[in-house]
Write a structure and sequence with these properties.
Length: about 110
């Protein structure tokens, strides 16, 4: 299992443990407790994570109406979603640029290298 630290810009979102890899990496996240303190800098980031968790849940449940609603709400976060500032740092302190990750229930996460 590989371990990483997840960042958006200079904000440490949490620690990742990769449990599966195919086309995308999949694993678990332990959120950084400091992230939970809403500030003007991370408010939209927290909302994006909450939206992603809900969208993932609705997708898994086959609830197309609510999934579509979450996708519409995600348009409010396109600056974060399309940001080039997502990255992970591995246990060798190497920075690996990634696409915006997808957050799921039970602290699960999916991410993909750029």
């Amino acid at each position: 299992m590989k371990k990483y630290e997840l960042y958006w810009k200079n904000i440490n979102i949490g620690s990742l443990i990769e449990t599966n890899w195919e086309m995308r990496s999949y694993g678990n996240i332990s959120f950084n407790p400091v992230l939970l303190i809403k500030t003007s800098e991370n408010r939209d980031l927290i909302k994006l994570i909450e939206n992603s968790v809900k969208a993932s849940k609705y997708l898994d449940e086959g609830d197309d109406d609510n999934y579509d609603r979450m996708c519409e709400e995600a348009n409010n976060f396109l600056d974060l979603i399309n940001s080039p500032d997502w990255y992970v740092i591995n246990d060798k302190s190497e920075i690996i640029k990634i696409l915006c990750p997808m957050f799921h229930e039970n602290n699960e996460i999916t991410w993909q290298d750029k």
